[in-house]
Amino acid sequence: MSYKPNTICVQSGYTPKNGEPRVLPIYQSTTFKYESSEQMGRLFDLSESGYFYTRLQNPTNDAVAAKICELEGGAAAMLTSSGQAATFYSLFNICGAGDHIVASSAIYGGSFNLIAVTMKRMGIEATFLHPDVSEDELAAAFRPNTKAVFAEVLANPALVVLDIEKFARQAHAHGVPLIVDNTFPTPINCRPFEFGADIVTHSTTKYMDGHATAVGGAIVDSGNFDWLAHADKYPGLTTPDESYHGVTYAKDFGKAGYITKATAQIMRDLGSIQSPQNAFLLNLGLETLALRVERHCQNALAVAKHLESHPKVSWVNYPGLESSRYHELAKKYLPKGSSGVISFGVKGSREDAVHFMDSLKLGAIVTHVADARTCLLHPASTTHRQMTDEQLLEAGVTPDLIRLSVGIEDVDDIIADIDQALEKID
Ligand SMILES: *Cc1c(COP(=O)(O)O)cnc(C)c1O
Q1: Taking CB atoms and a 6 Å cutoff, what residues make up the pocket around ligand 1?
Q2: Residues 137, 227: one domain?
Q3: What confidence score (pLDDT) does residue 395 get?
Q4: Which residues are registered as beta bridge partners of 179?
Q5: Mean pLDDT over residues 383-393, rounded?
Q6: 229 in the same domain as 182
Q7: Whose alpha carbon is nearest atom 1 of ligand 1?
Q8: Among 116, 282, 284, 288, which residue's beta carbon has the most beta carbons within 10 A?
Q9: pLDDT digits over 196-214, tens only?
């Protein structure tokens, strides 16, 4: 029986048996006990599934990963300690020194840095393209050693909506998977697998947790990409892993091959596991995800419309507005709403924008988005400060851009707070 998203949020992942705790328990244990060495050996060989050490797998984490997997309509999923770890693992699971990635330039600053700087130091090259490029330009970015395409469904903070089908078509025409970061829309507003994406990543730190309590990430695999059909490109999945008892992930685990490799090999060696405590908190957040996302979107649309008509606001970027250049793409990929995040420019100087920010009473200045409380940020002086002006513009971030993450408070109070702060500007 397949349930609708509201039901999956509340009920999936953990189903207690008779007499067991109603609420998902926190398995606060690093290790798991077995009666025989032989059985433990089978677990190590991956010939039997079970838990032995929390760095690789933990029952609390797995229940939460299963819920996220179901929300996305995927085949297998895993949690990571952060969204950054999810992005890195999703790529490093299929790329190594000498390989190449095609990436959207309109992505989260941390993801850009990871790919452009840190992964480059590992010998992995990347070509960044604005997601609005023509299909021909996109096609021209591929090289024989390209192993993945990476993009954000709704870019943080640029709010560019990805034409997922265009990217999927080109990725598949070049025999590589499309990996998309679906953090902002969440599976409530977009299920990228339905449009051809192969792998989805999340910073669960944002709407999924929703209360700003736990940093975390997730990777979900659709199971649709045929690694064996491109065996030469992906030897890590299609030839025996001598570091793991000779298993061949894509053959031995089918649709779970990619996630099994990321767990058994990458997580084993790099260790960015989510703590079961955080997974428990994440699960509480997920229970209300569908409700919250709906309210975030309602409030944000009302605030965006208000800002658009305000004389002290020079521009508003929200895909739900008809004035947005991404309105058509948003209607196709995000018909229920994009997210609670809006960007806009305050008329006047950079100082005026800062004055506006400092005058807010309800909205808080924090390096965060997508939690229940309304919050604001000026990316050019914070999250994106390591980028050159040119890179900033490439990522769609202007120096006057204010990112407003609309919370689930009463929308009248949010608008009143913004209005009184705009009043303070001369
Ligand atoms: C925050 C964020 C990340 C990084 O996630 P962390 O949990 O902070 O490591 C990645 N992608 C997007 C779109 C984000 O908003």
Answers
A1: 82-84, 87, 108, 110-111, 152, 156, 181, 183-184, 203, 205-206, 215, 217
A2: yes
A3: 67
A4: 150, 199
A5: 73
A6: yes
A7: 203
A8: 282
A9: 999 999 999 999 999 999 9
